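Good morning C.,

I know you're traveling, so I'll keep this short. The sequence:
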Amino acid sequence: MVLDNRSVLPQRAIVPGELFASRIFGKPFSLTEYDFALPNRYRAEGGPVGGAYAALQGWDIFCQFAYSHELKRIQDPNDMGNTFDMSHLVGARLFVDGELRESDLSFVAVVPKAENLTCRDRFSFDLARLGLIARVGSVAGDPAGRIPADTAALLATAGAFPNRTGLPVISAGEHEQELLPKLVAAKLLKPDWYDVKRDIYRSSTGQIELDAGRMMFRVNTPSCEVLILPEKTDGTGSALTVRNRVGRGVFAALSVEPGPLAKSRRILLLHLTDILPTRMKFADARLSRLEAWGTAPLLAERGEAEIALKLPKANAFRVYALDVSGKRLGEMKTSTEGKSLTFEAKVFHPGGIAFAYEIVR
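The tokens, ready to paste straight into the viewer:
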């Protein structure tokens, strides 16, 4: 099996970004199957990235494929499952809870009349990048009367079209490579939303940041914060700070009760690396060709990081490492400096593999 074993972050979230412009404004939009499959070593990133941008775009339905094909796969610890079965808890949280705001800025790709389209017609990749900042969708034919009220500009994807909207028209053909700089120059995008030199994309809501150059990702909502960090890299949100020491990691802090993290009495902290079967075999060091699926047991990738959470009365909290079933493996040693609760997260916990922590006041 040949694999594209890469993170989508340096690809500017091409998944789900390549779907942004396919949404037709004025109609509901549903993504019915979404997943980052085993053995992609970056699949833990799929949930936060997909859920965040689905919420920013204001999509109506966002479906993971799949949680489990059989009941035994979530009951038997020795069952190997399959390439698709997994839980994207963080992505679901970002999409469903309504705290990650839909962008109030839209760009409309105008395409020829639907009956003139062919399978060869493609959108410019720049429309996928634009969707990391604002809502992107399309209309076929004359756009007058069929575009969102918050539309900032029309994007001409092919040839000329009648413009009776009074809005700016920007060229966005299939081979367009300067769309975002054009929009910044026209003052339709704020310069801090798109950092061309560092390849950073910030949502118009201020809640999402994708750093393609450093393969980093950040999401902030009142009750959920996410950081995706390479090894030996630090990241900071509003309440969550991570100093990632060993292994690439997906870190998420989620309030377990209604209300913001800063006031929560119970918090779930996730520290996700990778997990693969014993003796899974690849043909090369890039893990781009799979030769053998391997056997039980599943093996976790090492990860170590210092976690800090800004919390009132931080010294009143206790932290427990959890196994994958949610059972407590043991209490963690913590320290407090000001309003920050700090502890060392290690996937290789003395009591077993720890991808999660329960933080309780």
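Safe travels,
E.
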